[in-house]
Amino acid sequence: MSGREKIRLGVLASGRGSNLQAIIDASEAGTIDAVVAIVISDAADARALELAGRHGIDAAFVDPRLHATSEDFDVAVIDLLRKHEVELICLAGFMRVLSPHFIGEYRNRIMNIHPALLPAFPGLHAQRQALRYGAKLSGCTVHFVDEGVDTGPIIIQAVVPVLDEDTDESLSARILTYEHRIYSRAIQLFAEGRLEIRGRRVYCHGTDTLQQHETYAWGVTNP
Ligand code: GRF
């Protein structure tokens, strides 16, 4: 995107890897100033690992069964991230809660994508939760990760409608297209050094109010 040096990402994923794929695509297309240095999974058969291999990216399976506690597991992951000089960690469908030790090591340098408008519908099956609740709008959220589950400061959200005829699958698919867009956008804002966390709020420097509105409200102003 610019002549600036690329930041090194570590992507943690447990499954399908469509967000990983979107990040790799953005990196290869040069629309983000970032490279994926390593992909780590807690599932040996994660498609995310296969995707990494296909793009010549280092990939590692860390077996939770070989680590007695979640902190031990996290220490093994941190070791890999350090060796790959990772500057920003992106959780993309990673099904484990990181230990306080991990969060402390990478404070304000871990992002997550969640398929709902937080703080509504945290945790698993967020799209189904929104449907069952009868929400008319849902969407997705990229946020920094803190010690809680889906509780960290919000960076970008995208809003999508929930339609009467929606099923889990149709709503998830509509949300997913925006996940792929806002995750790369958040990574780029981080790479440009434009994000500042003050308390619960994340401020984006270097935009006027109108552009900022567009940045934070994808789906409303960015069809
Ligand atoms: C996405 O819906 C993401 O929001 C959630 O887990 C899912 C991962 O999908 N955290 P994928 O593996 O990136 O395709």
Would you give an account of this structure?
The protein is an alpha/beta fold and 223 residues long. It has 2 domains: 1-107, 3-Layer(aba) Sandwich (Rossmann fold); 112-223, Formyl transferase, N-terminal domain (Rossmann fold). 36% of the residues lie in helices and 24% in strands. The protein has helices spanning 18-29, 47-54, 70-83, 100-105, 126-133, 168-191, 209-216; strands at residues 7-12, 34-41, 58-61, 88-91, 110-114, 137-144, 154-161, 195-198, 201-204, 217-218. Strands 3-2-1-4-5-6-7-10 form an 8-stranded mixed β-sheet, sandwiched between helices. Helix 1 (18-29) packs parallel to helix 6. It is globular.
List the helices and strands and how they pair.
Elements lengths: L6 E6 L5 H12 L4 E8 L5 H8 L3 E4 L8 H14 L4 E4 L8 H6 L4 E5 L11 H8 L3 E8 L9 E8 L6 H24 L3 E4 L2 E4 L4 H8 E2 L5
Parallel strand pairs: 1-2, 1-4, 2-3, 4-5, 7-10
Antiparallel strand pairs: 5-6, 6-7, 8-9
Brief rundown of the structure:
The chain is built from 7 helices and 10 strands. With 223 residues, the chain is α/β, with parallel strands linked by helices.
User: How many extended strands?
Assistant: 10
Number of domains: 2
Strand percentage: 15-25%
Using the coordinates above, name the CATH class of the largest domain.
Answer: Alpha Beta
